[in-house]
Amino acid sequence: MKRSVKIIGIGSYLPKRIVKAEEIDKMFSQSIGWSEKKSGVKQRYYVDGETASFMGAEAALQAVQDAGISLNDIDCIISGSGTMEQAIPCTASLIQEQLGLHHSGIPSFDVNSTCLSFVSALDMISYAIEYGRYKNVLLVSSEISSVGLNWDQPESSILFGDGAVAIVLSKSHDHSGIISSHMETHSLGAHLSEIRGGGTKIHPKFYDEQTKDDFLFDMDGKALFKLSFKLLPSFIETLFSSTNLSIKDIHMVIPHQASASAMKIIRKKLGVDESRFMNIIENYGNMIAASIPMALYEAIKQGRVNRGDTILLLGTSAGLSIGGIVLEY
Amino acid sequence: MKRSVKIIGIGSYLPKRIVKAEEIDKMFSQSIGWSEKKSGVKQRYYVDGETASFMGAEAALQAVQDAGISLNDIDCIISGSGTMEQAIPCTASLIQEQLGLHHSGIPSFDVNSTCLSFVSALDMISYAIEYGRYKNVLLVSSEISSVGLNWDQPESSILFGDGAVAIVLSKSHDHSGIISSHMETHSLGAHLSEIRGGGTKIHPKFYDEQTKDDFLFDMDGKALFKLSFKLLPSFIETLFSSTNLSIKDIHMVIPHQASASAMKIIRKKLGVDESRFMNIIENYGNMIAASIPMALYEAIKQGRVNRGDTILLLGTSAGLSIGGIVLEY
């Protein structure tokens, strides 16, 4: 049964600083073209003083305006991000603060499944909206990857970018809705992409020359892709099993922008051509949980996704998790 | 309308190391009785090598056994904790791994609203269970506070303890269910209790003599309590407004174990006597998000909460948030 929720507004914020592939090439003392060839990323954005809550609030203001409502109409704020601004409190509270809603009382909390945080949060909160608990949920993915990259690992560090996307999710009164959603976590791959430190296991107070790499992103890209690729067919089958649809009925696939090469192979495996597969990695890099909503934002603004279209949000994340939502926009 | 969910099993794990008030007194070169008098905490537990995912898995195994089901019956794992084990991946994935469910595919993600993470997660996932998305959700709060305490701040550092609690939450086929739930976030108080570092704003790589306190818990207890206390009456009114109940109908209040003095004042403000107010702080301290489920665990095991009883889960958290759930156990 379709869940009656509708994305009534979307907004984004991109950091001031644009980092071109050439800058990355120089950093690695490589010839021009090296990083773009390896990653497919022509440019990405890195924060230049912006915080996650600032970016999130900017994206939120745009989403609220796009929805044609006011901030006072928002009755729940969720940060669906793979990174936090502070260890305490949750980022959603800090976004509420940045929005000047100090006295609002709007419930604010975080949902985290790394790169799938946006999808997991959208999936979960849709039931509460369907049920009437909330009317207009502000869901924000605001990510700063640049601070946690390990420049000794070009494979991962040349991929990522920063930025924020927000949507307003409301009760649908027309055909818009979630047709199907599914998530799988296979902890077999829990350590294929991780930041071991920063939590209670290796607390920041143990930061030193010996441990410093534990606080930076560490990825075994090949193993990660191999496992994801193996799990994908049965995942897609399950996702569509409760519907009358197949991948052929999807107007646009909105994938996580993991890496250009992974996306190409996934696209071919799904059997969709480029016209039905949003690929924005060359302009933004991998923006963690903000990648999928950023690709959706671009698809909407470019007119490649229109009301009534059936779209598929699809991604993998550290965990290892796969998540997908089939929805009528 | 009551949400048909039922806590069918509960389990806990306490770290091996018991830390008595006397040990704390000595650490501060104070006379015996000093810390207990200030905090109301006679003892608490600190991890001695245990990780959050290990503790969470131990509590989960107990909860699953208590529920009379097997691990294979679990179809969703949520970590509702204010602390993370690692920055990436989410703690729920690591708990899945610890449970040996590597290949299970069970969707696993985190919900975070600091001390209210358990309550927020229970509240949100209840709609998905009601709707039939999941049958048996494993909700785990596993907290290690001890690693992040600032011993230059006795006011907060003498309060906290570590430990884990897990529940199995399932569709209810009898009277058990959530009668009402409500959450408010007032970011006016976002910085009254915080750990400024550890996220993207002050990354662990900036840890040094100057910044070290930014990575430890910092609390203005008086201001925090003042704001919470001011917000409580209207919060309680809203929580009960959709019900035919009042605080008089609650068999047992299961409060967040913030501090002994705060709990005493809150209890009096609510107008309930000690027999209807679970106070376990003297044996466990403040266990962050694990406090409320730990108090529930004790209430059930001591026979102070029985099937059919109407109970109130109630707490405040960094953010500042207030959250509550009225449920028939």
TrEMBL record, chains A, B:
Pfam families: ACP_syn_III, ACP_syn_III_C. GO terms for molecular function: 3-oxoacyl-[acyl-carrier-protein] synthase activity. Residues 242-329 form the Beta-ketoacyl-[acyl-carrier-protein] synthase III C-terminal domain. The keyword Transferase applies. InterPro entries: ACP_syn_III_C, ACP_syn_III_N, Thiolase-like. Keywords: Acyltransferase, Transferase. GO terms for biological process: fatty acid biosynthetic process; secondary metabolite biosynthetic process. Residues 109-186 form the Beta-ketoacyl-[acyl-carrier-protein] synthase III N-terminal domain. This is Beta-ketoacyl-ACP synthase III.
